[in-house]
Amino acid sequence: MSTVEKRLDELEHRVHDVVARDAIRELTAEYCRQVIRGDTEGMVALFTDDASLLTHFPAGSSQGDVESQGRTELLEVYKDLGAMSLKPFIHNHIIEVNGDRANGFCSVEIRLTQDGEAYTGAGHYEDEYRRIGGGWKFQRRELFVYHWVPYSQGWG
Amino acid sequence: MSTVEKRLDELEHRVHDVVARDAIRELTAEYCRQVIRGDTEGMVALFTDDASLLTHFPAGSSQGDVESQGRTELLEVYKDLGAMSLKPFIHNHIIEVNGDRANGFCSVEIRLTQDGEAYTGAGHYEDEYRRIGGGWKFQRRELFVYHWVPYSQGWG
Amino acid sequence: MSTVEKRLDELEHRVHDVVARDAIRELTAEYCRQVIRGDTEGMVALFTDDASLLTHFPAGSSQGDVESQGRTELLEVYKDLGAMSLKPFIHNHIIEVNGDRANGFCSVEIRLTQDGEAYTGAGHYEDEYRRIGGGWKFQRRELFVYHWVPYSQGWG
Prior knowledge:
Largest interface: A-C, 24 and 30 residues
CATH architecture of chain A: Roll
Structural class of chain A: alpha+beta
Oligomer: homotrimer
């Protein structure tokens, strides 16, 4: 291979990685935008057909883990969240790309209302992403909730 | 065109896009930094000369929409915000680049004080960006405020 | 130099910069992940051996500036923070790369508990980064705390 071809190969590899990481960051941002809009179909369209979502509540919580898999179950979960007027904000995104698969960590803070009362939540996602047809989707999201409490009470 | 030239063209196109997106993310971060510094001139310098800023307050708010256009009006708006010690934090940035124009969505959370009282705000921007002389500026910002309330009260 | 080589040079330069910026964003995200995990060794491993950390508390605070330098002192600082269950969230990142050195600004919001009570903090970092062996580390972090107050009280 010529020097020029080697440099092109190296550049293409690095650009591929950077573009993938940017697209994955936007996937999580787009997820937030759809949640904020309350667009259940829009949220679920960001997941692969066989994607799963697992939520871990904090130790001592009355709520156990909740897992959902596939379009139908995800639509059901997100339909139930619609009334909460969720405003999620993503931070601290770390991404590792391996070809058409990727893994990520990101923090989330959430402003919401539950039965007319302000709530505040925080936690992080451990994500698996998959590239399908040129775009990236969620293959799996695992949400570790630190707290999900009335705003007037806080997490103390 | 040779294969090498085709690969170079494709790379240049993708790198152009990635670099623009990075610069636009930093534009919104720089805006926050200038707001935090309380540097009114610094804030307005991030907008094009004919830029506009439109703020939508929530339904039911006593406050109607507020629009400002051009340097003089923007300077006036930001001068009035100076006393609030605004600390804005940007999240969930989505950017679409089209040549020297771009559109974006980003969430914002704000810590501030009003008449000595802590306030908390949240909302999102729908932005238009324009490249001028190698750098990106705001052409238009439309802010949709979800709530802007005393911290002690919350958004419930 | 041929036209192809010039284009390759220019591309390599720009990709180098974009990749560095991405890595530095992840460095600050990784820092947050290690803090959230409470992994003191993991946090300190993100700093160069002679790195320093300087914290400025707000004017009027009972607390003066605190500076630490080098692995041993940093380990001591972070050990003391372990009990607070800190959840830092980074925003508004601005990065300037100069070869193997870089400077940055980023905002931080923190949820924590102190003596069993919820606290909330906000501020920003002015960072110096250094590339070592292909990766980026913190050379110096200077934290400007805006407020660090009981959650029930707020920053008013």
